[in-house]
Amino acid sequence: MPRSRFAPLVLATVFCATPVAWGKLAADNPDWKETNVPPPPAFNAAKLIAVEVSANSALSFGVDPATLVIAPDGVVRYVVVASSRSGAVNAMYEGVRCATGDYRVYARYNTSGGWSPVADTDWRSMYAPSPSRYTLAIAKSGVCKGNAPNLSTEHIVRDLRAGPDRKFD
Q: What letters, b where the CB count within 10 A reaches 16 and e where it falls short, cover 91-116?
């Protein structure tokens, strides 16, 4: 079969790939290195911006806007707080790499022990089935604009407050 007959099939396959996969291939930089990660910042559970993850979730999630940082390496770091109906509170210090659709948990907080570094801090896909679907909701609600961090922390805060259905440019 001549090569010219395969060209449309190859092009269709490439352009029909999921946006996540296409963005990951297009934006991944093999020379990228993460900058030094600062220690977890203090957070204020009374000033959280709520992030809707799922109507069926037993936990509610919120991001402390004062903890948002867009690092020079393109990683957006923040503290997210998870609260249960019974009053249990846990927090995670995380980073999101919008260019690849990945996230990383640096530390976890609980009221009895404070911050504890996470031993396994590999980057993981926000799109993979996992208990951390809240990270994908945070990214889509304002941390990322497509495959890039939002323009500034002020834009992130504005978009998080607006909710997932109302976005600004």
A: bbbbbbbbbbbbbbbbbbbeeeeebe
